[in-house]
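ARCHIVE CARD
CATEGORY: sequence design from structure
SOURCE FIELD: tokenized fold
FIELD CONTENT:
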């Protein structure tokens, strides 16, 4: 396995409250991992720690987060900003909120390239939106965020985050607030980016069904600890923890299958 990300004994607190207690996880280049747990279990804290986007009240007490040989815990701000702009992309829960309401989608996409000092090639935005599974890219490029559905906004947010070709995509509850159809589309998009384009993925979600749809490995988090981790098929079929079984039983039975995009068929 070509190591990309290695989290070693990470402990993070908000004042006296410990949100992560000695969390260790590894991810190889091009791999996918979903971290699953109830609200308050520490998922966002984990993802924000990796991107070093923690709120100021949070304190990394101990541990290391190595990304391609750089320790993100001790790296200077300049290095973190450069990694976030190129190698590590972040998708927030609410796609609409990550877009600027005052500018069209096309302008925001072009801005990302310009901010990286790159020329905008002709039809670039259109091609990018097509890659995101958006069928009418011309209309979406010309639209303001308020003119788009929640699912479209989330796919545009993913487009913005992957525009510069990151090797790691971090997604925090990327389907929160979306209906089932939009959720499947965003799940399919993340699965595609990982399986077909080799972007490594760490997504956190309370929905183990969604986790199984997009990731090859699942880690289950409870009260700031990883209580179970393994290949998706094994965790779903033979969970080692009763807690994991509860999460599986909580998935609504709507005929969703757990087959991932990019797995053939
Ligand atoms: P999740 O994303 O799984 O819902 P979080 O990482 O947001 O979990 O929260 C983990 C724990 O840290 C919770 O107990 C939560 O109350 C606490 N927490 C999260 N953010 C803050 C904050 N900004 N200030 C204080 N406590 C926080
Ligand atoms: Mg959260």
């Amino acid at each position: 396995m070509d190591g990309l990300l290695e989290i070693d004994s990470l402990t993070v607190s908000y004042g006296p409250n410990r949100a992560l207690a000695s969390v260790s996880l590894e991810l190889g280049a091009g791999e996918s991992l979903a971290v699953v747990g109830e609200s308050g279990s520490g998922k966002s804290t984990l993802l924000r720690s990796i991107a070093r986007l923690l709120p100021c009240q949070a304190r990394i007490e101990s541990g290391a987060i190595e990304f391609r040989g750089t320790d993100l815990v001790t790296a200077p701000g300049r290095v973190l900003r450069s990694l976030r702009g190129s190698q590590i992309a972040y998708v927030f829960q609410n796609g609409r909120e990550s877009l600027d309401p005052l500018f069209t989608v096309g302008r925001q996409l072009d801005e990302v390239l310009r901010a990286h000092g790159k020329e905008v090639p002709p039809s670039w935005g259109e091609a990018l939106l097509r890659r995101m599974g958006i069928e009418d890219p011309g209309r979406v490029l010309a639209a303001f965020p308020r003119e788009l559905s929640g699912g479209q906004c989330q796919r545009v947010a993913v487009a913005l985050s992957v525009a510069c070709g990151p090797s790691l995509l971090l997604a925090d509850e990327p389907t929160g607030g979306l209906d089932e159809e939009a959720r499947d589309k965003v799940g399919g998009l993340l699965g595609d980016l990982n399986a077909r384009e080799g972007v490594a993925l760490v997504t956190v979600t309370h929905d183990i069904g969604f986790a199984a749809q997009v990731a090859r490995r699942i880690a289950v988090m409870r009260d700031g600890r990883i209580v179970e981790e393994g290949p998706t098929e094994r965790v779903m079929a033979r969970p080692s923890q009763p807690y994991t079984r509860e999460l599986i039983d909580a998935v609504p039975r709507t005929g969703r299958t757990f087959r991932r995009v990019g797995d053939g068929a």
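CARD ANNOTATION: Residues 3-87+166-249 form a domain with the Rossmann fold fold (CATH 3.40.50.300). The first strand starts at residue 3 and ends at 14.
SHELF: design records, drawer C
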